[in-house]
């Protein structure tokens, strides 16, 4: 669990895209984003207050989050100076970088001396149990994709917002590094040891109020041969009551797999639903989330109408149109 | 890769069952079992030559394999003395124990001083790639089960024997600790990090002669919610040309999951085959392996005949009847 709220470290980001983790935090959990810390030459701007370390501490920030990709996988000396000062000012550090904070001896030494924590969210910090499959109270929804990177995290976060707006009880459950940094906790599922994957998802989505929804961040796809085992662990460990099918209609082939065709939404439904019913016989598919970013407004509207007619389920692009209709579908269960 | 052949260490095994790993090596790779080393009070006997360390070295043994479960997860001082002497005599050590050889400082020190290797087969020793899904040459067969522990490893080893007897080219590919100790190499799949599971199976079963069969050791079950992700990685990483369905008909519920019914062979076929065809559209189900150990000879024969009629596929218990008919089915592909 990472202490919130955050000061968002943008470093010397070469452009806005390099700061997309910080942007995600600011977009989805603005209450976690006290301010931004930009170094000389930084080309990204979240449109929130620039703060010194001292100002951010006074404003209540507990953790400095590295919200920017670094160049060449190296934590530069310029960054290092700021990170050391932040520890000395009383901040914990959190990072989703491939190269780990804990592998930097100078940061480790200062963190020990100051009693602060280094959070590398790519690395599991919990000894997860083996899944026991016991039915849990409360409800769970999982987005499953025809492919990787079709907008499952975005769908889950938009759904969480829409459900809160309705006064429904919901919690976004992060299973990837960006989601974990956005919310401050979760399971870095792709880094969990095979035997404990499903157990880590059970751990992440425990017993809850009967009218509470866990919105579980999806990963991979049952059709993506590189990561399908991770998806399977989400389907069985999450024992979802509801599935949302996620799709990106313009993709020529599976991401990173030029010889693999993207399956249809029907194939996804017919594959994922029976698998989900092994763990939860009451599971149903409640809606469809389409990433229409490569379509015009008219094309998107026509495509969504076609999917809705074909599949008999609400079909939305949560980025363009919000997730209200998906929240309605869950409220009706 | 563990150097063969072995001296099989039975320690102070309290009964024959405690030495089942050693028994598996002796049964399936007798050429790897130069002799056995038994301590005072050992109640297990493999029926092969008792040897001192020196005798075993002279007979060609390269590695001392701990082929026995230890009590309470502790490597006792009595064992330790023998293990240290073995390193000093020039043996490598190999173990599938939960507590690791590498966590014993005295063994590590002696291994370093003598230049010997400590193999803990529960721990991956390779940086596996992420699966790329590219079609590989050669053929592969995978046993998939209605449940865990239904005899998938036994089926694979029996099939390997039957195929060799026919002069077919085949290699048993171990994915669990016992299999790895039996053959000397493999992937400890349940200990691999999620993102690399399918890639480790691709690595284990690389391009090969067009008429060569990799016989991939199965793990878990797509219906077992604790381990289904591991099974999925085998199905997609292994890109099998042939599946064998494995079943234990007398089980009251899924292993360790009292609330989960064991699926039918038909349900297994209808779930696993479409998943396998994502990675290999030519995949087919070629036969059925039934563990009839809890049935009389007559019951077993009647059950197998019934399955064969129902499913239209050869159905055998490889322990009772050998795997010849499964090898025939593969030879016909």
UniProtKB/TrEMBL annotation, chains A, B:
SUPFAM superfamilies linked to this entry: P-loop containing nucleoside triphosphate hydrolases
Concerning InterPro entries, the annotation shows: DgcN-like, DgcN-like_C, DgcN-like_N, P-loop_NTPase
Query: Where do the D-glutamate N-acetyltransferase-like N-terminal domain residues begin and end?
Result: 39-124
Residues covered by the D-glutamate N-acetyltransferase-like C-terminal domain: 130-326
Record-linked Pfam families: DUF1611 (PF07755), DUF1611_N (PF17396)
- Its protein name is DUF1611 domain-containing protein
UniProt source species: Pukyongiella litopenaei
Organismal lineage: Bacteria, Pseudomonadati, Pseudomonadota, Alphaproteobacteria, Rhodobacterales
């Amino acid at each position: 669990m990472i202490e919130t709220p955050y000061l968002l470290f943008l470093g010397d980001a070469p452009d806005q895209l390099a700061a997309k983790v910080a942007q995600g935090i600011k977009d989805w959990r603005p209450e976690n984003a006290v301010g931004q810390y930009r170094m000389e030459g930084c080309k990204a701007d979240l449109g929130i207050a620039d703060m010194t370390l001292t100002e951010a501490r006074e404003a209540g920030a507990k953790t400095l989050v590295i919200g920017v990709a670094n160049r060449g996988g190296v934590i530069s000396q310029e960054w290092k100076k700021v990170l050391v000062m932040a520890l000395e000012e009383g901040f914990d550090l959190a990072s989703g970088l491939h190269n780990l904070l804990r592998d930097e001896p100078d940061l480790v030494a200062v963190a020990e001396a100051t009693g602060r924590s280094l959070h590398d969210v790519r690395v599991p910090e919990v000894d997860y149990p083996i899944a026991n499959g016991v039915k849990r109270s409360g409800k769970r929804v999982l987005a499953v994709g025809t492919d990787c990177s079709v907008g499952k995290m975005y769908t889950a976060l938009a759904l969480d917002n829409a459900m809160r707006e309705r006064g429904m009880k919901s919690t976004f459950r992060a299973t990837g590094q960006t989601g974990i940094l956005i919310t401050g906790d979760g399971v870095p599922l792709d880094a969990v040891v095979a035997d404990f994957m499903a157990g880590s998802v059970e751990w992440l989505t425990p017993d809850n109020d009967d009218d509470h929804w866990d919105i579980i961040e999806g990963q991979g796809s049952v059709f993506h041969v590189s990561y399908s085992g991770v998806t399977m662990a989400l389907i069985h460990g999450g024992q979802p009551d509801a599935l949302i099918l996620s799709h990106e209609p313009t993709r020529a082939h599976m991401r990173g797999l030029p010889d693999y065709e993207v399956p249809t939404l029907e194939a996804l439904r017919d594959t994922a639903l029976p698998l989900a019913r092994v763990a939860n016989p009451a599971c149903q598919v409640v809606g469809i989330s389409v990433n229409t970013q490569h379509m015009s407004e008219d094309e998107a509207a026509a495509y969504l109408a076609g999917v809705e007619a074909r599949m008999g389920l609400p079909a939305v692009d949560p980025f363009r149109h919000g997730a209200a209709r998906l929240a309605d579908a869950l409220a009706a269960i």
